[in-house]
Amino acid sequence: MKRRHNAVPAGFFVATLCAVAYAPAYADSQLTLYGIVDAGLGYVSDASVVQTKGAAGKPAQLGKASDTTFNSGTWNGDRWGLKGTEDLGGGLKAFFRLENGFNIGNGTLGQGGTEFGRQAYVGFADARYGTLTLGRQYDPLIDLVGAVGGTAVLGSVAAHPGDVDNLDHSSRISNGIKYTTPNMNGFTAEALYALGGEAGSLTLQSTVGVGVEYARGPLNWGLAYSHANNGKTGASDATIGTWSGTSDSAFGSSINAGYVSASSRAIVATSATYDIGAMTLGLNYSHTEYASGPFSVFKQTAKFDTGGLLAMYHFTPALRVGGGYSYTHASAPTSTASAAKYNQFNLAAFYLLSKRTELYALAGYQRASGNTLDAFGNVIAATASVGDAANGFSSGGSSQSLVRVGISHSF
User: Looking at the domain assignment, is residue 213 inside a domain?
Assistant: First the structure.
């Protein structure tokens, strides 16, 4: 039964925000309201929803067809947030961030309906000793590697298949404690630990991550490792066969839906970009392992290796055009099945109307071969799925094309 709450008039909420934003400011504190609104149209070939359970636990048979859709947050995820800082003296600052994701098409909350699902943390920053944050936040993979990866340059349509390496932000970390060093001659390092919160265990549902980046002159490079544990306590656990951890589930794609019951997910990834005049060139690589546990529907560790390259050229200060390619090779799901392989090509164009408003066009094509597992542990032919897990579309076949055009505005 839904609980009822006393309603607060929308006008009161808006008035309160305005009062806070325009209250007399002190020299040692700041409060900022910010956000991004991004919307457009998209086309996807052979769009069929990822398999769901039908009668007697069998996969439901779903039709497939090309589809034209309204899209929310393709280039930049739609969001609004509040962030604030307070100068405590001696170079020490306290700060916080609350960031809410939403769908501009229908107004629903993002990140599974979580109120501040994108980010919600508080912390301290010191120019000499670094930064400490506590709460829901990104791990070093996203901060240090994803920031110079394919999706940062070409958009989410260029995410590695199924976002198996989480470089496109499919997973965020709850209950996280993260330390970031000061910049030291271009180098920055991060370490994160997220408490699982399961009584009697220090590992179930926990997440650890470490990483380093170098950013100086034309070179940007990042390297990071993340290990996330699932939460399984016994045969009576109602979550058996699913994912439950401080790292969000990222198994919404046909690429990795068969490994949602993994006992853990480990990722090591590296990305680099180099600027040569108006041209940006990039390389990236990742290795992901989904470990099998006593309550997994698969029996051997699944491994995904992905390599990619990209290029972006600035024709004018307002116009830039680029493209990329990635190849993913997965281990065979069983000793008698062939390994899945995914070849993906991407194109992207961006045009700045102003510092805050941008038009974009993104395109992707992916071809799959070999075998993988479905969500019920059955060996099936690998199917293409362009973009990250949030797209939620499997082609139902060996190839898929996707095009998105839209406008993004920040405030």
Answer: yes
Q: What's the number of CA atoms in the CB half-sphere (13 Å) around residue 236?
A: 0
25 DSSP assignment = P
Rounding to the nearest 10 degrees, give the CA dihedral for residues 387, 391, 397, 402. Answer: -60
Taking only the tens place, the pLDDT of each residue in 306-363 is 999 999 999 999 999 999 999 999 999 998 999 999 999 999 999 999 999 999 999 9
Answer yes or no: is 21 within a domain: no
The confidence band for 8, taking pLDDT boundaries of 50, 70 and 90, is: very low
Domain range enclosing 153: 30-410
Per-residue pLDDT tens over the stretch 176-186: 999 999 999 99
User: Would strands 302-314 and 319-330 be described as parallel, antiparallel, or unpaired?
Assistant: antiparallel
Q: How far apart are CA 180 and CA 187, in angstroms?
A: 11
Nearest to 215 by CA among 147, 286, 125, 126: 147
- 164's torsion region: left (phi>0), alpha (psi -120 to 50) or beta? alpha
Query: How many structural domains compose the chain?
Result: 1
Distance CA 243, CA 261 (A): 6
Label the pairing between strands 79-89 and 399-410: unpaired
pLDDT per residue as tens digits for the range 255-273: 998 999 899 999 999 999 9
